[in-house]
Amino acid sequence: MSEISRDEVKHLATLARLALTDAELDEFAGQIDGIIDNVSAVRSVDADGVVPMSHPHSIETTMRPDVVGHMLTPDQALDQAPAQAQQRFKVPRILNEGNE
Question: N or C: which end of the chain has fewer CB within 10 A?
Answer without folding.
Answer: C
